[in-house]
Specification:
The chain is α+β, with helices and mostly antiparallel strands. The chain has 17 helices and 14 strands. It folds into three domains: about 1-85, 2-Layer Sandwich (Alpha-Beta Plaits), CATH 3.30.70; about 145-260, Multidrug efflux transporter AcrB TolC docking domain, DN and DC subdomains, CATH 3.30.2090.10; about 345-510, Multidrug efflux transporter AcrB transmembrane domain (Multidrug efflux transporter AcrB transmembrane fold), CATH 1.20.1640.10. Helix 13 packs antiparallel against helix 16 (about 455-495) and helix 15 (about 415-450) packs antiparallel against helix 16 (about 455-495). The chain starts with 6 loop residues before the first helix and ends with a helix.
Length: about 500
């Protein structure tokens, strides 16, 4: 909400939100919190409402409804003027806040040395980002607009009444903020006892001016003069048991001024943030498009010394991408080297490695069918897929070599093209049943993961998707394409007279 919202209005909006959220049939419990908790690690302003929603079991949901549909319905019903909504998960929200300081999936951090300029730039960036497809829950942090009660002591007035500034400030502190005077013990729990004025006497400026400050009657010089200086008619001082009580309005100036609700800094510079989430689109392509928009429309207008940077989950994604750019080639290189040590031939090692791109095709297509975006979990799934695809390719080539070696022994090392075709066919057919068993066992083990809905399913599903899609296409490649390429390679060796028994299959021959 806007930073100058009152506590009463914030609590009212919280109650309205909770009632609307609870009206959704799939919602079991809802709990809202205004402001920060009793901990310095939760720097939430009063203008932020944090609501935790517990959903019922999926068996009690309306037919055909999904979690994304519930969020969309809730968001449409919670379009309250002056309130911007952001939807996230509790744990990742805490992680984001602690690691990056951003309370959403993405954030644009704007740095500078003037809060007014930062707010203007953030609001302009908010308008630009809202127009990009996939942007949701866009909200620019307001660095100005907070309301403060400023109480300035009239030094001449308090000297006229013989009052110390500390006496006046003690009255202000006790009446408005409250003062702990004791402590109550209930079992093992301890609660402070705080005394302050009732709400009706401290919630507006005019009532605050009517508060009384006690002074000695003998020290009073000319109260009438001071009353005339205020330009208004506050309550007249009254005498009680030799003491005189002066209205606070005679001794101080009380004003409501605007200022920053919270000052955020990072790297020794003031900071403002534009919060946003990404829906129905992968984060990488969204950020790339948003970068182009901000670079062309926002960056040229920034004052000297001001700049912006992307934060949130995008920071983690960039770090993961940098690591994967190193890990993925290393994994493929290690697989290729191991194959070379097995076959002692670069050509045959490359033959087996062809199963990797075929497996990649199936994994990518299955991702597309399910509407998933590339993530770290999916990358790990692809690495596992490469190992499975190469393993089945190795076994197929071993069976083909075993059949070819038998034929070479049978024909005394002299083969015709038809003999080569017959040997390859025998080896491929012999491998058919084990290969199909491997595929079906892997699928039977992974398909239940796709149906899982419990804790950890959000991570397990992306791991299983590349494996399921890739195993199918790699099986087609190993069963039908690998024998064909094997024949082509061995035919070239046969024509050159270099076709010999393989070392890798001799344990099967013996």
């Amino acid at each position: 909400m806007l930073p100058n919202i009152s506590m009463n209005e914030a609590k009212r909006i919280l109650q309205v939100q909770d009632a609307i959220i609870k009206s959704i049939p799939e919602v079991d419990h809802v709990l809202g919190k205004v402001g920060r908790a009793e901990t310095p690690t939760d720097p939430a302003p009063t203008s932020m409402i944090e609501t935790i929603i517990m959903l019922k079991d999926k068996s009690q949901w309306r037919k055909g409804i999904k979690k994304s549909d519930i969020i969309e319905e809730l968001n449409s019903k919670l379009q309250i003027p002056g309130v911007s909504n952001g939807w996230t998960q509790p744990i990742i929200n805490r992680i984001n806040m602690l690691t990056t300081g951003v309370r959403s999936d993405l954030g644009v951090k704007i740095f500078g040395d003037n809060l007014d300029s930062l707010e203007a730039i953030a609001v302009r960036a908010e308008g630009l980002l809202k127009g990009i497809p996939g942007a949701a829950d866009v909200f620019a942090e307001r660095t100005q607009g907070g309301s403060y009660i400023d109480i300035d002591i009239k030094r001449e007035a308090i000297s006229r009444y013989g009052i110390n500034a500390g006496d006046v400030l003690d009255i202000v502190e006790t009446a408005i903020g409250g003062q702990n005077i004791s402590k109550t013990v209930e079992g093992r729990r301890r609660f402070p006892v705080r005394v302050r004025y009732m709400k009706d006497y401290r919630m507006n400026v005019e009532e605050l001016k009517k508060m009384y400050v006690t002074a000695s009657a003998g020290s009073m010089s000319s109260p009438a003069t001071d009353a005339s200086m205020t330009g208004m008619n506050p309550p007249a001082p009254k005498s009680v048991s030799g003491k005189i009580q002066i209205p606070l309005g005679d001794l101080v100036d009380i004003k409501i001024n605007s200022g920053p609700p919270m000052i955020s800094s990072e790297d020794a510079m003031l900071r403002s943030i534009v919060f946003l989430n990404v829906r129905d689109r992968d984060m990488g392509s969204f950020v790339n498009e948003a970068k182009e928009v901000l670079q062309s429309k926002l960056a040229p207008t920034l004052p000297k010394g001001y700049y912006y940077s992307w934060s949130g989950q995008y920071e983690n994604q960039i770090r993961a991408k940098q690591r994967l750019e190193i890990i993925m080639p290393v994994v493929i290189l290690i697989i290729f080297l191991m194959l070379y040590f097995v076959y002692k031939s670069l050509l045959e090692a490359a033959l087996v490695m062809l199963s990797v791109p075929f497996a990649l095709i199936g994994g990518v297509y299955y991702m597309y069918i399910l509407g998933l975006n590339f993530s770290v979990a999916i990358a790990v799934g692809f690495i596992a897929l490469f190992g499975v695809a190469v393993e089945t390719g190795v076994i197929m080539v071993i069976y083909l070599h075993e059949a070819l070696d038998r034929k070479l022994i049978e024909k005394d090392g002299v083969l015709s093209k038809q003999d080569l075709l017959n040997a390859t066919e025998e080896g491929a057919i012999l491998r058919l049943r084990p290969k199909l068993m491997t595929v079906f066992v892997a699928l039977l083990g992974l398909i239940p993961v796709m149906w899982s809905q419990g804790t950890g399913s959000d991570l397990a599903k992306p791991l299983a998707v590349p494996l399921i899609g890739g195993i199918l296409t790699s099986a087609i490649h190993v069963l039908f394409v690998t024998p064909v390429i094997f024949v082509i390679i061995k035919e070239q060796f046969r024509k050159r007279g270099k076709l010999h028994k393989s070392e890798m299959a001799k344990f099967m021959i013996h």
